[in-house]
Amino acid sequence: MVREGADAGSPVAEFTIRGTDFQNAGHGRLGRTWTVPARRSLTWSILLTPPAGFSQWGWVPLIAGEAVHSAVTEAGVPAAIKWPNDVLTAEGRKLCGILARVEPLAGGPQIVLGMGLNTRLEPADLPREDASSIAIETGIDGSEIDHEALLVSILGTLIPCYRELIDYGDEDFRDSRTARRVRDHMVTLGSRVRVEKPDGSDIIGTATGLDAGADLIIDDQVCLSAGDVHHLRPAAAPTAAERSQD
Q1: How far apart are CA 47 and CA 12, in angstroms?
Q2: Helices (H), 20-170
Q3: Residue pLDDT, tens place only, 164-214
Q4: pTM of this prediction?
Q5: DSSP 3-state helix, strand, coil percentages of the chain (rounded to 5)?
Q6: Alpha carbons 229 and 202: distance in angstroms, whole number
Q7: Which of 34, 80, 91, 169 fits as disulfide partner to 187, beta carbons 3.0 to 4.6 Å?
Q8: What gap in Å lies between CA 244 and CA 239, rounded to an integer?
Q9: What is the rounded (10 degree) CA torsion for 171, 79, 227, 25?
């Protein structure tokens, strides 16, 4: 959202969008670099300017996740939200990463909400083994995937959900329609997880809910505002032969 040249000092309107067809040094969470092959992903940012006193920062990437979930499901890919900022396929492969960066400004903080949605990537393009794309999941040619239509679909959910978040003010946003949608579509909730905390320590337990600020609740006791979540596979049920030996 940086502006250059003659307009560098002028304010940028809320909901201004910037996108790119190619990215080789994007910002991910925890200082990671985000790269995007040319014309293979929907990569863009939107500026949000919440009112003074806004404190519900944790909900912003989650409502963005719900917006992406809705759009890719509409495009034919069953999906789920992973706390705090990913959208996965139903099998757990990463489709989209989201980053909400708070920019402190003299007139009040703003949020640069960015996301990269894997759309036209083929298997050879994938940045990691546990990733996928809309083209791979649907089996259609990437050239048939309309980025503009996907963006319009995402915005059609994102902006009303964001406005509901703003309208709630100091009330508990967990009671909202949007928060219910987020919880309904979040695969993390109810899962056994290992969370790598920013200080390098781990916590293992069951993700049992979200608190009022969208922090992740572990075992109904610990609230985490940040961390890398790894969904743990449940222990395999014993076979009939193993049961017979007990």
Answers
A1: 8
A2: 59-74, 134-138, 147-168
A3: 999 999 999 999 999 999 999 999 999 999 999 999 999 999 999 999 999
A4: 0.87
A5: 30, 30, 40
A6: 10
A7: 80
A8: 9
A9: -110
